[in-house]
Amino acid sequence: MTHAASDSGGLAVADGPALVPVARAVDLHKVYGSGDTQVAALDGVSVEFWPGQFTAIMGPSGSGKSTLMHCLAALDSASSGSVFVGDAELTRLGDKELTRIRRDRIGFVFQAFNLVPTLTALENITLPIDIAGRKPNQAWLDTVIDTVGLRNRLDHKPSQLSGGQQQRVACARALAGRPDIVFADEPTGNLDSVAGAEVLGFLRRSVSEFGQTVVMVTHDPNAAGYADRVLFLADGRIVDEMAQPTADRVLDRMKHFDAPAARPKG
Ligand SMILES: Nc1ncnc2c1ncn2[C@@H]1O[C@H](COP(=O)(O)OP(=O)(O)O)[C@@H](O)[C@H]1O
Ligand SMILES: [Mg+2]
């Protein structure tokens, strides 16, 4: 039994190099609880994330956005299905290997910043690298710090920084180790529109200028407009996808999804 033509299977890249997705999910299911209280947070999600692509994930509250990100980022495990980060299938890995993948290949930005309050901005940014026992790449670190505009705030503790500055520290922390992919779960959810635009501008530049792969959950059509494509999630499934989104087109699509009349009757 051979697996014929496995090198072309499923890769929809015409005439391009045989790229491997940075991360992908195959028929992912996640069930919480049991019996009557059972919730299918993910109900058969298959999706690929390509190098240098900025993907936004949208959908109503409870549609499974955070669950999907956590499963892709090796922060949670699925009930069934597979997650790949590059060639590594997470479900086949032990704790040690999962820790290494989380540490070396994945960056995560949380809505609530999650900085260590006793550390300075710079110490927060380099913390994952320090924990890993690695030396930071100084040139890259400088690039990241200058891109997020934190050069003159490096000695400040999080409590001495605005929300927007704290989230820019968190973004710099996520990028400092040059991960293969950065996941951001509503990174602008706690920010005003000006600070939010700065964070989004930085994520966009990390993709356009450094080829970073970014996946971002957002409720905000304007935020989604920064992405290269938008996935729409509902009830644990991907129900639509939009390429080259603009805020207006995303808003239009959301109206369609939000309208109660648009929901099929069970
Ligand atoms: N730890 C948990 N225990 C039980 N149910 C959960 C848990 N986490 C999420 N859920 C449920 O799974 C569904 C998807 O949640 P989530 O992924 O957080 O959605 P979103 O991020 O889109 O708001 C929701 O119905 C939620 O209540
Ligand atoms: Mg969520």
Automatic annotation (TrEMBL):
GO molecular function: ATP binding; ATP hydrolysis activity; transmembrane transporter activity
Domain of life: Bacteria
Ranges where the ABC transporter domain occurs: 23-260
Any single GO CC term annotated in Swiss-Prot or TrEMBL for this entry: plasma membrane
Keyword tags: ATP-binding, Nucleotide-binding, Transport
Pfam families, alphabetized: ABC_tran (PF00005)
Gene3D superfamilies: P-loop containing nucleotide triphosphate hydrolases
Protein name: ABC transporter related
Organism from which the protein derives: Nakamurella multipartita (strain ATCC 700099 / DSM 44233 / CIP 104796 / JCM 9543 / NBRC 105858 / Y-104) (Microsphaera multipartita)
